[in-house]
Design goal:
By secondary structure, this protein is α/β, with parallel strands linked by helices. Helices cover 36% and strands 16% of the residues. The protein has 2 domains: 172 residues, Phosphoglycerate kinase, N-terminal domain (Rossmann fold, 3-Layer(aba) Sandwich), CATH 3.40.50.1260; 152 residues, Rossmann fold (3-Layer(aba) Sandwich), CATH 3.40.50. The strands form 3 sheets. A 6-stranded parallel β-sheet has the order 3-4-2-1-5-6. Strands 9-8-7-12-13-14 form a 6-stranded parallel β-sheet, sandwiched between helices. Strands 10-11 form a two-stranded antiparallel sheet. Strand 1, helix 2 and strand 2 form a beta-alpha-beta unit. The longest helix has 19 residues.
Length: 358
């Protein structure tokens, strides 16, 4: 397929005075640690669009609405807990401008309201309230497209999902990748395609077996893989001399809930010599105070290495950064907003939301 199309000075100038449909990822809890990081990550694209006198219509999903009955073509039903309304005031505070929120999906009224409004930023309700979103429905995509003049995908963390607001919509509007998406791809490509050795992968958290099997190609390029929390003796686990398992650990039943001091010292030494590092998943159950030492230790070792290209990803891993308090992230460390999307991209899979932009 063709090359990725990103925002540029040329197309921003072309769309000055127009309306952009901006797909971001607000699939978080307002006020949670990950929420503040993801919000901070998407702000530059919105600010760039506003600077170029472009009106912004924000599209996102949140959670998985449940419903007993559904009629084709009608909303799933409102779930107050999953509404995007709280983000209107959050975005307004961060951007320093009013954000108009729309709780309905009457597209004629939406079009009229957005067109006539003097407000520069508009936020639609949770797209998962609509049946066509997860079905990648062309009809819904066309309706969404009617609200703007061009489309920007800045939701890397959701780009592996074939939805109407990620894939089908690109057939109806000029489409581009946003600043965050561009940053994600460039940093992951550097680690995946041209890693400088020693190349170290750190894996932990849930579904370790799935991660290992999915990243077999990347593991072949690595010098070693440092492993953390997992069940012992998982059948079907990838066998490789590059895999380094904890030699001492704090266990809970058949699970490793944290790595021990001997393993931490060994991992710290390996991380300190690395020139490329990819980290996905904390090495312990850091949500409990008794099992945080390994995760804190890995973070300190990673942040201390100023000479490596480092990519950190996964919701749990990003959230665990809060354990260090207010810590400045060095320029050589990129914290990805993607969890599953990051792993799929590194495994070599095509992410449909990204392929649709080519």
């Amino acid at each position: 397929m063709g090359r990725m199309r990103y925002l540029s000075a040329q197309n921003l100038k072309k769309f000055s005075g127009k309306t952009c449909l901006l797909r971001i990822d607000l699939n978080v809890e307002p006020g949670a640690p990950l929420d503040s990081y993801r919000l901070e990550a998407i702000l530059p694209t919105i600010k760039l669009l506003l600077k170029n006198k472009i009106k912004v219509v924000v599209l996102s999903h949140r959670g998985r609405p449940s419903f007993a009955k559904a009629t084709k073509g009608k909303p799933r039903g409102f779930d107050r807990k999953l509404s995007l309304r709280p983000f209107a005031s959050i975005l307004a505070k961060e951007l320093g401008t009013k954000v108009e929120f729309y709780k309905y999906f009457d597209f004629q009224k939406l079009n009229k309201g957005i067109t006539n409004s003097k407000c520069r930023v508009h936020l639609l309700e949770n797209l998962r309230f609509l049946l066509g979103e997860e079905k990648n429905d062309a009809k819904l995509a066309r309706q969404l497209a009617s609200l703007g003049d061009f489309y920007v995908n800045d939701a890397f963390a959701f780009s592996h999902r074939p939805t109407a607001s990620m894939v089908a919509i690109t057939k109806f509007l000029p489409s581009y990748g946003g600043l965050l998406l561009e940053k994600e791809i460039k940093n992951l490509d550097k680690a995946m395609k041209k890693p400088t050795h020693p190349f170290v992968i750190i894996l932990g958290g849930a579904k370790l077996k799935v991660k290992l099997l999915g990243l077999r190609g990347l593991i072949q390029k690595a010098d070693c893989v440092l492993l953390g929390s997992s069940a012992f003796n998982e059948s079907g686990m990838l066998k490789s001399p590059k895999l380094i398992w904890p030699e001492d650990a704090k266990n809970h039943g058949k699970f490793i809930w944290d790595i021990g001091p001997f393993t931490m010292n060994r991992y710290t030494s390996i991380i300190g010599r690395a020139k490329t590092i990819v980290w996905n998943g904390p090495p312990g159950f850091f949500e409990k105070r008794a099992f945080r030492k390994g995760t804190i230790g890995i973070w300190k070792a990673v942040l201390k290495n100023k000479g490596a290209h480092i990519v950190v990803g996964g919701g749990e891993t990003s959230a665990s950064l809060e354990l260090l308090g207010k810590t400045k992230i060095p320029k050589n460390v990129f914290v990805s907003t993607g969890g599953g999307a990051m792993l799929e991209y590194l495994s070599g899979k095509e992410l449909l939301g990204i392929e649709a932009l080519k």
